[in-house]
Records
---
Amino acid sequence: MSGPDAIAKQFVDFYYNQFDNDRSQLASLYRESSMLSWESSPFQGSTAIVEKLTTLPFQKVLHKVSTIDAQPSSPTVASLLVDDSEHPLQFSQVFQLIPDGGSYYVLNDIFRLIYG
Amino acid sequence: MSGPDAIAKQFVDFYYNQFDNDRSQLASLYRESSMLSWESSPFQGSTAIVEKLTTLPFQKVLHKVSTIDAQPSSPTVASLLVDDSEHPLQFSQVFQLIPDGGSYYVLNDIFRLIYG
């Protein structure tokens, strides 16, 4: 992977595909220092984050990504903004990715529903 | 300022107040390494960013902030997500702030309109 746009595209494809198929597998993307803000509720660490994600009140979900904005930050960090326009819920989600042995993990994850 | 929530609140109040009163004064918040993504268009450096902000096709604007999500990142960084529900335009904006001599500057700024 090279460049923030390519990293963003590959990460987003992987993340939401994994989310829609088996959310428990997302644990590998987080570390103990990772933080999730889910509709203003804070969760820290891979275990707490994945517990939140796997206990969301729905079984089947399909994400459709409409737009991705990515920027490099420090030389080692990429931030993403994803807008999802799938009916009926719109959301905006921001990830901050940290390089880790040739791959990336999620340090910051902010999720917010958008009410039209 | 202390804690990401307090930093976020203070920054957001200052930023949008300045934006609504005199956008050219926002130059002090950016550095040459700063990046703005405005509806997918990239701008780098304080001069280019402020030129973009000051030539937006409107004269009067009033931001009304509805929600702020903040997370600390590395010990030196805060990220913010702002949702603005003011009629008629909704947007989501992400700032990454870097400490600089007791204050902060904007390293990353991603702006995206939300279409309901």
---
Amino acid sequence: MDKVRVAIVGAAGYAGEELLRLLSRHPYADIRVITSRQNAGKDIAEIFPRLAGTGLSFSMPDVEAIKSGCDAAFLALPHGLAHEFAEPFINAGLTVIDISADFRLRSLDQYKKYYKIDHPAPGLLSSAVYGLPERYREQIRNAKLIACPGCYVTSILLPTTAILAAKLASPEGIVACSMSGVTGAGRKVDLPYIFPECNESVRAYGVSGHRHLPEIEQELAVAAGLPSLSMNFIPHLVPTNRGIQSTVILDAAEGCTEEAVADAFAKAYGNERFVRVLPAGKLPDTKHVTLTNCCEIGFKLDSHTGKLLLFSCIDNLTKGASGQAVQDFNIRFGFPEETALV
Amino acid sequence: MDKVRVAIVGAAGYAGEELLRLLSRHPYADIRVITSRQNAGKDIAEIFPRLAGTGLSFSMPDVEAIKSGCDAAFLALPHGLAHEFAEPFINAGLTVIDISADFRLRSLDQYKKYYKIDHPAPGLLSSAVYGLPERYREQIRNAKLIACPGCYVTSILLPTTAILAAKLASPEGIVACSMSGVTGAGRKVDLPYIFPECNESVRAYGVSGHRHLPEIEQELAVAAGLPSLSMNFIPHLVPTNRGIQSTVILDAAEGCTEEAVADAFAKAYGNERFVRVLPAGKLPDTKHVTLTNCCEIGFKLDSHTGKLLLFSCIDNLTKGASGQAVQDFNIRFGFPEETALV
Amino acid sequence: MDKVRVAIVGAAGYAGEELLRLLSRHPYADIRVITSRQNAGKDIAEIFPRLAGTGLSFSMPDVEAIKSGCDAAFLALPHGLAHEFAEPFINAGLTVIDISADFRLRSLDQYKKYYKIDHPAPGLLSSAVYGLPERYREQIRNAKLIACPGCYVTSILLPTTAILAAKLASPEGIVACSMSGVTGAGRKVDLPYIFPECNESVRAYGVSGHRHLPEIEQELAVAAGLPSLSMNFIPHLVPTNRGIQSTVILDAAEGCTEEAVADAFAKAYGNERFVRVLPAGKLPDTKHVTLTNCCEIGFKLDSHTGKLLLFSCIDNLTKGASGQAVQDFNIRFGFPEETALV
Amino acid sequence: MDKVRVAIVGAAGYAGEELLRLLSRHPYADIRVITSRQNAGKDIAEIFPRLAGTGLSFSMPDVEAIKSGCDAAFLALPHGLAHEFAEPFINAGLTVIDISADFRLRSLDQYKKYYKIDHPAPGLLSSAVYGLPERYREQIRNAKLIACPGCYVTSILLPTTAILAAKLASPEGIVACSMSGVTGAGRKVDLPYIFPECNESVRAYGVSGHRHLPEIEQELAVAAGLPSLSMNFIPHLVPTNRGIQSTVILDAAEGCTEEAVADAFAKAYGNERFVRVLPAGKLPDTKHVTLTNCCEIGFKLDSHTGKLLLFSCIDNLTKGASGQAVQDFNIRFGFPEETALV
């Protein structure tokens, strides 16, 4: 197969590093350009010594050069910036796979409410495909602009959409408690993230209004066949490098049984390479999925309260970001979906 | 003041170590006996080098010797064993402060259901006082048998009972998600607790039927003025040594406001030395309470779902076990409540 | 290429898990048998959920079945047991790659002194090849029995042998201080290795007589062209899962310069895929090599004392054990040396 | 006893926090002023929630106010700044206890070489007393300016000076390998110190020219009765919050035995409250000394190389900084040396 020539724009953060780790082993990807304003001119070995073998160097982002020299571009930028690249790249015929949040929300109002700016490129929204392969695989095959889901979002959607779609729980009153490792905050140099402030610490944050909340609500509503829904998403920071554990509490529908839940998951994910559903009562562990693109799911029906409990674990940088982006890339370009992924 | 002569039965676990740490600095406690079947005869320096300065040695538990030589006994034993000591000690006039679970539950049925054995000493139950000072201080003053609350339980009761007592939230459908450090499992030598299995790992466990569940339900029902209630308690293991973070999600009562919540907390805990309530929206952190007897509480009313979110952090070995036991000891013997505690 | 049919004997420890992780992605290895006395009959998903996709199950070790059905066997057993498998397998024509310590030492006396038993199969020793590819690649190509180096040993030999061979430092008075993550102790369920005993802890151990000492001395003597030498090896346990950092202090030879050191390393490792030598003064980091088969090396000549300081980092389970075993396997069977390795 | 009125200048770093933790429990210290340019005006609860109970607030440093209102000042400032406070305070009759590096080195040349600036107040140097109580207790009793030793320095001097003073090892060719937790870098917001860069990482740094090197050399020379000596000090960063483990390798003197070493330590530290020497072959652990002012020391004579190995563990913020400062304060003002310390 011909190799796809790719650019990674914003390659010096943790999501960028993970993309580099994965794509550098991808037999059908040819990394042509990696950009970083801050590190332009530096050899990759200076920033990510473990990737020294790739021989790559960071450059300043150059839209024209990428347009003419690449077939696809991964964008790993802070929100609000992706469109500066997405727009010209799409116009030039490239496929854009965006890891930022800019093209995930359907609603401009929600975008403004949670990101505090007007959406910078509303015209692109209609062409964006939500990059969760387990729910949007067919659309991804032909997408020009793929908006990769947020990390927390992925961990909550995979267990919960299958249950809502099967009408096994109520879409009202859903609560999701998540715990994330510190790379989830990005490669951010800020006091709350230095080692002594995170180690031996557990803390909730962003408990009513985290930016991933409207994205979760949007996709759960789609799964439930509703125009919208409201739920609680409560993230916590825990002292690990990688991994998200999400615990989702739902009101079980009448007649819901653990067998029915197992069946719904089997139907949804029986053929999925990257979703592993455990038997009832077995619970997932973030360490089971570290550095893999897998989502591990457990569940338990609590008969004494009538709650259905869902549990999921992903690696926030892999299935929660760059691994899923590569999975999308593989789907889009017709490669076996698991290429370069485990 | 005269010193109280104390024994610590089962002193070689983490709760025992924490008791020793605290009592060895207590100006009115005279540690006469520390027992450990496994370590009898060993100098404390062999087991807990940091306590070498106390000059203590472990002995086999000797009921008669303790009866005649001590005024109070702390029991830090696995469940099912405490009565073997509690009964003779109480009969001999000693005050017993039990850190195990044996005298916490009012219901023999619940005890049997969750601990899988018949209660070994039902006759003692009626004399047991639940050792949560913030709710049972007066009874503790005259107690002969004090049943110290479980660690998770303490972290959930402190924020939640005040809210239920003030009728600011519904007692139905309560969900508590907790995250605990690994000392919560005791000094247990078992595969799931070795370092490489816990480090870089987050996992839920015991999600429908943890032994702390009936204890939480019992005390929340008391606070709500109900004969009983059912709720979900979902514990998670995170890679820290110490600390519990509990997130409690309740349906806010009609008309509940953040001001009303702040007032309820001020009323309940305004004079409490070991409860620190943060302003609305500020969230607690386990590292703020490590090695202290404090419970740090935060809260947030989520107007878009009508849920009231409570957050609390304690050190599981201090306020969650041995610190609270010392606080009870101070109350019972008339010492300033904060003696030997920070 | 035809696939090589392999068995992994003793596959339920951390080295076994790492072998499984690597070989399950190896395009030319066909894992036929994985054995574990303790877990015989269990599906791999129960023990190593992340490897569920391999569909393997543990069986009791069956020498006859392996002899007739496999071309190569990896042994990941405690010392003293490997010969029970190595002998019949070699006689049956299989290639044996042993991760245990049994065939590393040339001297039966040293084996007895450090392992406290008579060597169980001295007759096999002469046919064993020491499996450090960077020094014994040619012999590995034709070996029937490959003795993979110890983890600490690998981290110390790679920087130090090149320097001794180039006569840039004295072979006398060498000191190596190493720090290892806890998987280095194996999947061992023992009090010193439970999370709360390792977390927030740094400690030296085995400081005069660790079992890796005679192995280091043996190979450093070979590199120095001496019949034997004595040195100090001082291991420390640090709270990480994976990784060894070794700091080696040597007396620089007269006229030794940093340029000469860089040249010696370039000559020794310029063509090596799995050794990365940093510029003078740049220091390695265990996180740069996690889950890779690389050894990262740094150095510094301290002019004020005349000491040459060498630093190296490896992943103890990859280059320090199973990755190196796979590298040996690749060499032995003529596959590209980096197959299934990064 | 009358309370001593104290100021803490630069109280918002980790050493400042530790001083606050200790002094807030000190029965004879009255904390009058805590300064922080960055946090002036803020309540302590905002910066260090666990110290909320002290009721203190940060102010801008005000030399005149401190001069007139305090008896002693602790300085916890970066190097190069202490003299701005030390000079006027001493002139006004206050006792100054400086945790910075500015008054530790006797040699202005060494100061300039390692700190890259001319010493800002050479006139004060002659009045400075080196604040290591185990070696300079008598001078500390009457000191006006106490220069508290560096953290690494303390961990190396305590085991090594006793051995050199007893002539049990050569002062030549000493090597010290140390491992420190991340608070050792201060509360520094810099990429190498964010959680994901430190967790699962071990790395050497500052291996030939760390600022603590000349200080160690100076004091070891004093102990050995030499005008100067040269040695190697090699620090490593490990993923813990607190704790330093130092391993010191020396050439044992002829006739040195483990008994002689034990005797030398007994003589040096038999009456010391904060030095705990373990029996030969037993090794210290940083977790044994966390949050205490103790130094735990182990040793081993390696007969096969003739090296004497010393091991020590301290809490870098307590005995390595603020605890030692409080110990000095207690000595200086005639309080029992262990007041407020464990």
---
Amino acid sequence: MRKAYHEELDRIAESLVEMTHLAASAMSRATTALLDADVHLADSVITADAEIDSRRERIDLLSFDLLALQQPVATDLRVVVTSMRMSSDIERMGDLARHVAKVARLRYPESAVPAELRSTFREMGQVAELIVEKTGSVIAGRDIAAAREIEADDDAMDRLHRHLFEHVTSSEWPHDTETAVDITLLGRYYERFADHAVSVAERVVWIVTGEWGNEANGSHEDAEDDATGRAV
Amino acid sequence: MRKAYHEELDRIAESLVEMTHLAASAMSRATTALLDADVHLADSVITADAEIDSRRERIDLLSFDLLALQQPVATDLRVVVTSMRMSSDIERMGDLARHVAKVARLRYPESAVPAELRSTFREMGQVAELIVEKTGSVIAGRDIAAAREIEADDDAMDRLHRHLFEHVTSSEWPHDTETAVDITLLGRYYERFADHAVSVAERVVWIVTGEWGNEANGSHEDAEDDATGRAV
């Protein structure tokens, strides 16, 4: 019975890692679609989001079965419940990538991103891809050191996001308001994508150590807010 | 043993309902702080958010205890797991109200909201307050009819949000880019607040009926996106 139980847990962990790969791919392709004004690529991201959603549903079913049939306690219980939370986080990351793809599609045949911000968005796309692939490694290997790296990647995303924000709100902003609105929303999507990756990593750390890392859950966003002087 | 179990479930439900009252109050006061440029009221919302977070933590502890000690199955299991998800949704609603309060504080002594948008924001605040109070009724009474009403309230929020969006992106937008950015983010905070309330209501419906309502989980945002022609 214990063997079957651990096989079930392994299946859940594998599904979670799969989800991180799908989310990485989604955000990477959404960023390319955005920069290249590639409407077909944008459409493929939008369609593929259903794959991520269905993984989350499957993890829910596996977890419910485990809870009902195996009735885990202590750390095992923590693992199962936390896995369901992680799958919700990663599903949300997929949604955010889909939102990026939708902006790309909306602006076709133009790119939604002004020339002077292209390198910033390319970098945000790369950080997003890296951060969620690392999250997969953290889940697969219960790798606490990698979880700490993710915090540094998230700081990098915060800096890029802040740069975006400062540019859009500066007196030298050379584009129209509609572009400012698009960039504001896009920046928030990438920012929240990274936030969710940090949440997932923190949950793995909690399973392994029983601790929440440097900040209490939820105050991560506050730290950003205070750094930018505004709620972003 | 069954009696103790049902008392535990009742305590969880009561905590959830309490959270909805706190979230309603938070969003109502944040909206007032925003419209009146009331920095003290804004600060009180920001401080009080910790109350909402601590309720979520308590629900987690109660739920874990229940799962470990009572080992529920079937519908009971569904209720416990779903309660944890609902508490995360309501916690997030509290965070969104805090973000609104932060914008209010940032812009003090001005109001962040231009004159011609005051009535729109006042209405969004009222819809937000109503929708989360109704969510509390849905949880307390397993009230499916009220859950349907919430969908209508959410449609009302979508219309207000769309109005905001159209005004900000129109060629007649008479304010600076920084104001456009603030309004864009504020609109998204109210929008997501209502989305989370709908999620909570849908979860209660699922507990009671086993069904997800009119739309598959997650496609609610897509329906909005399609209506506005953009990802908002």
---
Amino acid sequence: MDSDFGIPGELSALQKHRSLYEPELPPCLQGTTVRVEFGDGTTAADSSGAHSISRSFPHTYGQPLAHFLRATVQVPDVKIITEHPAIRVGVVFCGRQSPGGHNVIWGLHSALKIHNPNSTLLGFLGGTEGLFAQKTLEITNDILSNYRNQGGYDMLGRTKDQIRTTEQVNAALTTCKALKLDGLVIIGGVTSNTDAAQLAETFAVAKCATKVVGVPVTLNGDLKNQFVETNVGFDTICKVNSQLISNVSTDALSAEKYYYFIRLMGRKASHVALECTLQSHPNMVILGEEVASSKLTLFDLTKQICDAVQSRAEQDKYHGVILLPEGLIESIPEVYALLQEIHGLHRQGVSVDNISSQLSPWASALFEFLPLFIKKQLLLHPESDDSAQLSQIETEKLLAHLVETEMNKRLKEGTYKGKKFNAICHFFGYQARGSLPSKFDCDYAYVLGHICYHILAAHLNGYMATVTNLKNPVNKWRCGAAPITAMMTVKRWSRGPGASSIGKPAVHPATVDLKGKAYEYVSAAMMLLRQNATKFLMDDIYRNPGPLQFDGPGADAKTVSLCVEDQDYMGRIKKLQEHLDKVRNIVKPGCSQDVLKAALSAMASVTEVLSVMSAPSFSSHTPF
Amino acid sequence: MDSDFGIPGELSALQKHRSLYEPELPPCLQGTTVRVEFGDGTTAADSSGAHSISRSFPHTYGQPLAHFLRATVQVPDVKIITEHPAIRVGVVFCGRQSPGGHNVIWGLHSALKIHNPNSTLLGFLGGTEGLFAQKTLEITNDILSNYRNQGGYDMLGRTKDQIRTTEQVNAALTTCKALKLDGLVIIGGVTSNTDAAQLAETFAVAKCATKVVGVPVTLNGDLKNQFVETNVGFDTICKVNSQLISNVSTDALSAEKYYYFIRLMGRKASHVALECTLQSHPNMVILGEEVASSKLTLFDLTKQICDAVQSRAEQDKYHGVILLPEGLIESIPEVYALLQEIHGLHRQGVSVDNISSQLSPWASALFEFLPLFIKKQLLLHPESDDSAQLSQIETEKLLAHLVETEMNKRLKEGTYKGKKFNAICHFFGYQARGSLPSKFDCDYAYVLGHICYHILAAHLNGYMATVTNLKNPVNKWRCGAAPITAMMTVKRWSRGPGASSIGKPAVHPATVDLKGKAYEYVSAAMMLLRQNATKFLMDDIYRNPGPLQFDGPGADAKTVSLCVEDQDYMGRIKKLQEHLDKVRNIVKPGCSQDVLKAALSAMASVTEVLSVMSAPSFSSHTPF
């Protein structure tokens, strides 16, 4: 491959200006010393799956959290690393490009060179393919100069997001040994980080010296858990998409003749759609998670939209904006089941032309009901993670088509007396994910890059770089690392009464779970949305966050999802540790009987409550 | 109609910040005095059509140019207007919304109130429909506060762009009389300004006191001539589109697996596509004007793109970005002819279902060759100006389809040995035209609004507000007004040998005319493009102008088209007048014989050269 990666084009004036921006470092990452404090060993949030996870990851499960501390903090057990031998690190982009990715590499390079100018950073060319084939580019300041604070992954390129098959894992192992890497940094989303954990375990078993580190970079915003508040790229994607959605809303309100159906890239979960809704106030949003939890059919959805169109027509409004996440199609139970059948036939090697004739009667009935263009798209081969090719399935056109058909029917029957329904469809994804990264994503990615070095300096393997307290200014950010295994869950599928199958442990995409923990995180946002749903639907209170700004007011805006959430799990874990330490200090051998009694009684009731709360619930997960 | 126009929603932080921005006024518009200098009577640039234009516009053709002067300038014949009785003005949005439109109204309102606080500005609700039905909203500072520097036309709304039929013209006349309007300001593009000129003439004939003023506001950027350098909205549209095209280019370069076919809104002419090309450096752009002038067929275009794809594949490149103007489809001669037949059958009242069977044999052959989705789109009713519904015809999908078919054929035949060709299609239009306006468009529109008042204060009818020298800072802008009739041309179509038909005088969209005057204007840009065409095609020197900025570097950027052009026609006309005045002053009665002889001889040769140059060329216009 005659690659052009790393060869810069002409930068525009704004690109040049951006390339000069220097992100700030939080105090804990400043200086030339690495100060790491370890917490207790970690468990998996999914206590029912913990056993299965620990069995799959004997070397890397249960490792402690790591917190990186500022120089001024006085903590007894902190490990201070002042010796920094030159090390060799490889870095690879995995999966869909996400704005800010380049800054992870810049941050990592900068940290490496600050601690030892003789350290080496090798970028793998063309993503995982470059990793398998040992194709590298040594990262230098000169190469970086054109990619600092710029979008895309074009400095190194990317291919598939998987390092999974035995062949792939072995190729990666061979590469890391051949290049004598001390560390391998994997930049990607849920799939790539699951693979990073597997690679770390494999390397540990093989006694390979290379430590594997993951970085949460995905525009989907679905790598969310106790340790990870948001992902690099999510902020930018939501801002660019919101700008466009708002522009379209302004257009709708000016011309008053079209309904815009807008599908948003973001994989299975609806995080992007939710954030864009909070930014732009469209008339409707259909969250995949709501559809799945309420088990809405295509017919229900069509009816809901048609009723809304009709209510608006009664107020003489013939325009509107409706958002759909790209994962919606898989959230509709009957379509999901149809897709499962199709994918099953794919796995059996049935050719595309023959699939429709081998569907079960009910699946066949649904399939035949659908318009031709959607049939073709549903028949596409599934993605590497077994999900449908969501970016290729034009759900927005399907719904617009179904709504138009139904509105025409109502018009004919006389139950609808308004003007003809007109839809325009959009898919926003590619035009956002290549954007210059927002200031937030520049900062976040750069800091994560620095943390990767700290993780490697502390010789940690199978960890993900984390920053918490992100909604506050950079100098308040808390930097740390968490074992990737602690973010894993195990999925169970019921296969008829009594039978169930168990998936492999993996970092699963966090959905906007309306009943579970994730919902807690976004509940403020969701409540806001619910309270305003009727106003949004009927009153056109469109809002335009405007284009991404790099200077002046607006440049420091963060996503609503991040700001309304009260996460800081890592901060709380630390706080708890402080409480436990205090109890231990107060109730030292020699303390009074009364104090000891009070402590025992209080702690006994605390442990009892917590034991009950933490018991495996065995609640079934819907793998929609 | 229960209208929500003028009812503001919640403004975002950036929207609020923008609403506080106060555009600067050029010195000639400052103060409370209007100082107007008249030039010579105007002619039409199209000398062959001048007679026909003057006959159609006896009252409004041949009026002089007007220049508005700063207080400090000493000119003998300047008319100084210090008395400003309270006046009543109506304003209407016509045609597609274009960013900055609201600022024309703000500027006009501000100028009205500065000169007399008792003046009244009435906005027509719902565009021309509001004008015909006398539905108005009195514009106040309170209403404006939420629309200053904001996008869209939602303060007043808009409907059709035409005031053309006798019924429509009479309704407008009735409204202006009933509301006792001293002025009617029409905000729109070529169609609306042609209608404005017709309305001005009709009002003059009917001795209606309302003066009609046009304002060049159209995202297409095709209302360009000696007097008008650019249009309100064009700057913003090109910037937002270029941002998205560049993001997609970054995406292409990162993933290296797709060809992106991007169609750009902008009607018949390719100005938007040209400017976006100069901003973003995509791999290819297909200008409609080039296709029309070279008479390229669909087959030629397909082959050109396929050959480019193949050359790139030989360099192991399987991605690319190709821009198409929405007008391209009408520029392909055989498709244009097919559309003419279809539109002819529409006019004869043939139903859509029967059109295909009544086409001529060759048109039918082409039609049957096309894929189904394009057939449906070509059969749509034409627009009010007889052009096809360009926004609805997915030329990008047609070309992607033809290229894919051809590449598959080459692959099968073994003449192409690369990877499978994959295309993703986009249409960028709606997501740009609702944007917050750029600083340039905010300023330009606001200044034009002020000029409208100056035109009305000078009692001019049938004029368009103009600003020249736009590529320089606002304090260097020259403000004036030109009769709309001076911008008109008359089209001739040859109807077989010897026979030709003549169109109505109209302000026609300026195309990127590769042989004519327009080409002169953009030649620098076109040369830049041509010189770099191969580099653009093969080397991926993508450039990302980034998102629209309102603060910091980049906020003052202007379009390349504007900056490379050397227009300032109005400035040169003034300069010429100065030369003529000087000659007259030097050669006053009483001067020496020698001086007189020299002047006579010199001027005789000047007039001879100019007569030859100005002779009607009768060159035929291609009405593609």
